[in-house]
């Protein structure tokens, strides 16, 4: 993990992120649509909420992972939702762990969030194991949650509560 740099996402990172999120395995693990253009990603990034945190994992100047923490408002100001993806060619090198450490550290030490939540495909055992290592627990199953790769797929709701 020592060769992975975690930092805030910059506008110049969107080309690498477009490549990352067009990888077959990376897109399979998210709710994103495949074949999204750089221009569409730029528009989406520009329209984002100012309270959101966007991190990237970088190896040798290339963005190989992406994660976000979206904070809720009003009566859910104590909570946030996370999502992440890692480039297919770099899976298993520690980028997911480094990104999770960055998100959880920011949530705990700077944002004072009590609850972090996420949804993960029920058949993505590698991601579930990562989230469990960071204290996330399964809270429920969403059956036929979304259409993915030609079939409906189930999703597991997970959350981490900070004492």
Automatic annotation (TrEMBL):
InterPro entries: Acyl_CoA_acyltransferase, GNAT_dom. GO terms for molecular function: acyltransferase activity, transferring groups other than amino-acyl groups. CDD domains: NAT_SF. PROSITE patterns: GNAT. Keywords: Acyltransferase, Transferase. It is an enzyme of class 2 (transferase). The keyword Lyase does not apply. Its EC number is 2.3.1.-. Residues 4-163 form the N-acetyltransferase domain. The keyword Transferase applies. This is GNAT family N-acetyltransferase.
């Amino acid at each position: 993990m020592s060769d992975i740099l975690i930092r805030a996402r910059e506008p110049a990172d969107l080309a690498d992120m477009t490549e990352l999120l067009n990888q077959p395995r990376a897109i399979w693990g998210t709710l994103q649509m495949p074949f999204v253009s750089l221009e569409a990603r730029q528009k989406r990034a520009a329209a984002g909420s100012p309270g959101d945190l966007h991190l990237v994992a970088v190896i040798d100047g290339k963005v190989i992972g992406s994660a976000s923490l979206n904070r809720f408002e009003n009566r859910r100001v104590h909570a946030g939702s996370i999502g992440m993806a890692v480039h297919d060619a770099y899976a298993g090198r520690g980028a997911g762990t480094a990104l999770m450490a960055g998100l959880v550290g920011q949530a705990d030490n700077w944002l004072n969030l009590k609850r972090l939540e996420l949804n993960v495909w029920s058949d993505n055992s590698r991601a579930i194991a990562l989230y469990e290592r960071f204290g996330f627990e399964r809270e429920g199953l969403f059956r036929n949650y979304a259409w993915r790769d030609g079939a409906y797929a189930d999703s597991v709701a997970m959350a981490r509560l900070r004492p």
